[in-house]
Amino acid sequence: MKSVKDTLLERRSTRRYERQNISQSNLNLIYAAIRNTPTSYNGQQFSVIDISDQETKIKLFELTNQKQIKTCNRFLLFCADYNKITTIAKAKNIEMPQFSHTADGVMVGIIDASLAMMSAVVAAESCGLGTCCIGYARTAAPKEIAKLLKLPQGVFAVCGLAIGVPRETNDLKPKQGKELMIHSNHYRTDDMTQNLIDYDNRIIQYNTTRSGSTSDNDWASHIINYYREAMNYEMLDALRSQGFNITK
After folding, report:
1. Which of 66, 78, 146, 164 is deepest in the core (most CB within 10 A)?
2. So what's the pLDDT on residue 7?
3. Predicted local distance difference test score (pLDDT) of residue 212
4. pTM of the shown model
């Protein structure tokens, strides 16, 4: 098993996997890590759909166009979940406030699910498995995915995680330096432009020299183009269809 240091600092996205099952002991560790995730109020406002059925994975691939979903051994879908607390509230005759209709309620569910996914990433990577976080599981076809996976009212997909025995070891992608990521006592007030340009150039160098397929992508234009694409997502409508009628 990898050390905590190696697990966290050598993590990279894996998009190609061997046709090999994940051992039950490794799955149990991943499940235990997910269950022990810190959550808001200990409310555990999340659930995970563990998908091993190949036909379902192929359908998800067709909806998202993310090949690693159909080639990984297990695909975990992390969901914000207010269905569980609503169910017990009815059973105990407790009036349920409309917390899920607030921006904070939605954020709490998203944060809990995201923390749970990171718990799974660390557990899986520590076992020598490869992982790839997939945001398109949330944005590509949210209504269709909710129907396919039978998500009830009060539950929506936040993010997906492909897990499997890695067939490749990609180059480690450069991240922003400490001077951009870690601020001391308050957000930095000096001009960070040059730091950002330097990082942008590092990304260009990485993309043009990395092993496997290369490109001339920079960081800034690539991310901003993603934002432009994401402006077309109908996430508010998808949330409302799952019972999250955000009012404030």
Report:
1. 78
2. 95
3. 82
4. 0.95
Question: How many residues are there in the chain?
Answer: 248
**With left for phi above 0 and alpha for psi between -120 and 50, is residue 44 left, alpha or beta?**
left
Retrieve residue 39's tokens. Answer: 């959550």
Q: Are 144 and 157 in contact (CB under 8 A)?
A: no
Phi-psi region at 150: left, alpha or beta (left = phi > 0; alpha = psi -120 to 50): left
Q: Greatest CA separation found in the chain?
A: 62
pLDDT at 170: 87
**Alpha-carbon dihedral sign for residues 202, 220, 171, 205:** negative
DSSP state of 13: B
Instruction: Residue 37: count other Cβ atoms within 10 Å of its Cβ.
Output: 19
List, as own/partner pairs, every contact residues 137-145 make where C-beta atoms lie below 8 angstroms and the sequence separation is at least 24, other chains included. Answer: 137/60, 137/64, 137/66, 137/69, 137/77, 138/235, 139/230, 139/233, 139/235, 140/63, 140/64, 140/65, 140/66, 141/63, 141/64, 142/235, 142/238, 143/238, 143/241, 144/63, 145/60, 145/63, 145/77
Burial (0-12, 13-18, 19+ Cβ within 10 Å), 26: buried
Residue 71 structure tokens: 């080639």
| Residue 168 confidence (pLDDT) | 87
The alpha-carbon radius of gyration of the chain (Å, integer) is: 20
Q: For the chain, which ranges sit under pLDDT 70?
A: none
Which pLDDT belongs to residue 82?
98
